[in-house]
Amino acid sequence: MSGADEGAAGAGAAPAAGRAVVPCRACLSGEDLDWLGGRSVSLALDLTTSVTVRPPAARPPAGAAADAGAGAGAWADEVWAFLRRRLPGLGVRPPAVTARSDAPAASGLSSSTALIVALFRAFTEAAAAPGGRGRPVPVRTLAQWAYEFEFAVFNGGGMDHLAVIAGGLLLLDGRTTGLPEIVHRTDFPDEWAVVVLDSATRKDTSDHIRSVRAQLAAGDARLAAYRELTDAASAAVWDAVRSRELSALGAAMERAHGAMRDLQGMSTPLLEELRAVARRSAGLPLKLSGAGGGGALVGVCPAAEQAEVVARLRRALGPAHPRARVIPARAAAGLAPEIAAAPAP
Q1: Which residues on neighbouring strands pair with residue 193, listed in sequence order?
Q2: Model confidence, pTM
Q3: Which residues 6+ apart lie within 8 Å of 344 measured at CB?
Q4: Could you give the domains of the chain?
Q5: Between 185 and 203, where is the model more confident?
Q6: CA distances (Å), 308 to each of 191, 245, 252, 275, in order?
Q7: From the centroid of its chain, how far is CA 187?
């Protein structure tokens, strides 16, 4: 994610500097239920994406583009065009930005949504600062705009936008249109930590969503069964976290994964092999995070054991799966946790 072209400040007064740091999210249960209807559980992780608006003529920091990957420039142009239709007075061109991300791309951890939300926040705050030409944007509006922007591209749901903005652990009730309802938000137990196993195979979310929408239109029985089983798994995940029962959490996440694999074909032979390795080497149950096949698996372990679990997994994966990455993570606060207390429109 490299910045928009240096010196691309809008016509007229240049926006003041702005910065946003946004976590990624793991889905513990409920892929697609945010737009099919049903409960899902998301957890914000401290693998963050940051966007910083640079002053005119300022050069990006060394290594920024390499750290963040490709794509921020194109998204910056599109987000700026979206905002210009809603915030009169913005310049024609977006300001230059520097973007960085800790989360693996196309892995089911919402790194794209984190970038889009960070661009919306950085641009709107910079435009509203002294010398800018915008106005403050409430966080609920920010979430709605980011959802509408991404829906126009991918035709998916709004779990990711609320997850990275509200942070913590969310229980969501999906809607067929618009953002899901935040039923509950809570902090994740401090005594637990997250292990991400990135398979280094990319997801294809857009094709997946088209396929599922076709299933929905046809009244597919397997999709109906998936919704029922996954909704129940989400309730079990939430209850296990609230009662601090780690073994129950792992079992509920595995049930959610089983429904993804057996009823919707979201897993792959490689992912199942990685799950088996994690079980054998570290006793860690893993669940695929995010729809579309490929991507990352996530598991939860005691925080005091995280370093040893990560080390065991790396040793076990190294010979046969050198491209797979094991990433330690912890729960994270969101960009604006107060959104969980704000009433939905």
Answers
A1: 301
A2: 0.90
A3: 140, 179, 181, 182
A4: 19-185 (3.30.230.10), 188-329 (3.30.70.890)
A5: 185
A6: 15, 21, 23, 17
A7: 17
